[in-house]
Write a structure and sequence with these properties.
It is a single chain. The protein is α/β, with parallel strands linked by helices. The chain is built from ten helices and 18 strands. The strands form four sheets. Strands 3, 4, 5, 8, 9, 16, 17 and 18 form an eight-stranded mixed sheet that branches. A six-stranded parallel sheet has the order 12-11-10-13-14-15, sandwiched between helices. The chain has a two-stranded antiparallel sheet with strand order 1-2. The two termini are 27 Å apart. It binds zinc ion (2 copies). The site of one zinc ion has 8 residues, from helix 2.
Length: 346
Amino acid sequence: MRALAYRGPGVVELVDVADPIPRPGEVIVAVTAAGVCGTDHHLVAGELGVAEGTIPGHEIAGRVVALGAGVTGWAEGDEVVSYGQVVCGECAACRSGHENRCTRAVGIGMARPGGFADYVALAARGLVARPAGVDPAVAAIATDAIATPYHALRAIGALEAGETVAVIGAGGLGLHAVGLARLLGAARIVAVDPSAEARTRAEAAGADDAFDPSAHDQPARALRELTGGVDAAFEFVGRASSVELGLGALRPGGRLVVVGIGHDRPRLPPVVRFVGTELAVRGSFGSTRAEIAAVVDLVASGRLDTSRSVSRRVGLADAPAVLRAEPGPARTVIEPGRAATTTAGG
Ligand SMILES: [Zn+2]
Ligand SMILES: [Zn+2]
């Protein structure tokens, strides 16, 4: 089969490799669509230290074409999407329904081959059915770009109707956070991003205000003045400055949920303010398989607008150039069945 292989920092190429064979509990999926995530750009840039030969891609939609031993509940021809990691199913986190915290999780497209290929072996336990009416490209990115903010807003952020929300970082995840916050009944949504293009897209996605932090000497104060203090801030960047901005924008009793990943060490406000105003900070990582099923249902029902979720579709042959390029605001989906000519579409 064809696959994209990581060959070292900045090097990714289209190669021929042996077709995967399903181990017990696994299925083979013919990949229909695989989303290109920010993580994949970090991987190709050499920042994640994955092994040479790694096939990236963890946002996968496809059709089951073979079953390994012991697989029940799935049949050849089933249309599916997949959880982004293979979890152990046995640890305390897995047993309590928090498999996104599994301590023995194996990342698909990182520690095991991913979906930037014609076929991929996936754990049957991680599959979710794709309803016929849902575009495979949208279903693929729903597993991460939609399910991750869904988990952050609902399970971790406990967002309630009528609240004021700041979405910091209006890239792929942040844009979907805006739409989901609206769906969950947020009264006012402020999208925060230094990119004018990102702000415009956030307003199109339903944000009430778009705030440019780079236009202010004291952005946290300006954001607090604009909003009167937000009930909940969701950070999708993973930098100290944006975490501190989120904290600084909270009203008393407000909470910050950090979704962006990085190695910065943000500072808390002075203890007297942190304690005195009862602020809360939580991390939020990925989602559960059940939450993926929930967002796929939201997409299928039409309640969540995904008409702008996919901005570019490419075949496998065109994908290496996309992966080597600087990640932009465009959300690219690789469709292995697509011919080798880059086309715009949505
Ligand atoms: Zn991802
Ligand atoms: Zn586990």
